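Not sure how to ask, but would you mind making up any protein sequence you like and the tokens describing how it folds?
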Amino acid sequence: MVRRFKPAVKYRRGSRTHGWGRVGQHRKSGSSGGKGMVGFHKHKWSLVMKYGESGTGWPFYGKHGFKQPPTIAIEWRPINVGSLSDIIKELKKEGKIAEEGGKYVIRLLELGYNKLLGGGHIDVPVIVYTPAASRTAVEKIEKAGGEVRIIPLIHK
């Protein structure tokens, strides 16, 4: 479709200020009261009150929350029920899992995992020892005729 009007900038070409006044207007950050959060405690205080949470100045001022020290933070290494079902035969060949009463006994910590999640399907009855498991993972394993036993996780 044919344009009826040229873009405004085409008309402004050749003029020094493109319609923004005499000297240096509409440039850099002087026209906005400073860069970024400059002036939030002075001339931009009304913005803090308008957009901050209930007049407290949050999230503009103060420290919020905390970061756990790495010495006590737990690094989760999860595995899904479906992935566990896929590797059971390989683990049996390697001798990493035992069989007890027709059920495979799997200790996730020895395999390098510390959480069991509920993605996928399982149809083999297993007994899983793990520090943590999701509700759906427990339901799926119990539906297959197995059980999940929660063991304490000792972290450094």
Notes: The beta strands are 78-80, 98-100, 103-107, 115-117, 126-130, 147-150. The CA atoms of residues 8 and 146 lie 72 Å apart. The mean pLDDT is 88. The chain is about 25% helix and 15% strand.
